[in-house]
Amino acid sequence: xxxxxxxxxxxxxxxxxxxxxxxxxxxxxxxxxxxxxxxxxxxxxxxxxxxxxxxxxxxxxxxxxxxxxxxxxxxxxxxxxxxxxxxxxxxxxxxxxxxxxxxxxxxxxxxxxxxxxxxxxxxxxxxxxxxxxxxxxxxxxxxxxxxxxxxxxxxxxxxxxxxxxxxxxxxxxxxxxxxxxxxxxxxxxxxxxxxxxxxxxxxxxxxxxxxxxxxxxxxxxxxxxxxxx
Length: 229
Fold this sequence. Notes:
Elements: H1 3-13, H2 15-34, H3 39-48, H4 52-63, H5 68-78, H6 85-89, H7 98-106, H8 110-119, H9 128-160, H10 164-183, H11 189-204, H12 208-228
Helix pairs in contact: 1-9, 2-3, 2-4, 2-9, 2-10, 3-9, 4-5, 8-10, 11-12
């Protein structure tokens, strides 16, 4: 497989992620416009922070008048789980050079990691970098483009079609759920059920936000331990 074939195959593999990112990125653009942060700032956060839930949290915090430094610390805290993604697929990317590792590390969002983790073993070793680059570039471009579209035209569109607001708010959970279903294979179910149990326990005790963070750590760690054994 040539590097071009691998790259375009990665782009093709990114289509399910793109389908989910379109409404979520659009919703973020609308949220940024509602918080009066402007299109340029919304695009800046999508290009350099590139983390959906954290971006929504950041915009909400700034809208509520939280100091920038405090908002930044909270945003970083929400993204700590991303440190687990690199080690999660490091065994399949041992041939990558340091620049290649740095480039692909940036693009490992929740959804991209989910797809890469389940598909990368099907790709020849010498083609994995270009395949992963195509997968990540497709998702990244869609996220940035939909953010601009949401910021520029979303507010006007929602004024005419208010029912779209509820659909957009459900887009992110729907995307996660569809990716979760694709991972429910033997050997991965333990990680999923452990994360679910942790999140549910925190939720029932009135600490839903803490449960999300705890499950984000427990699930990947359980999966990594299971795979190594």
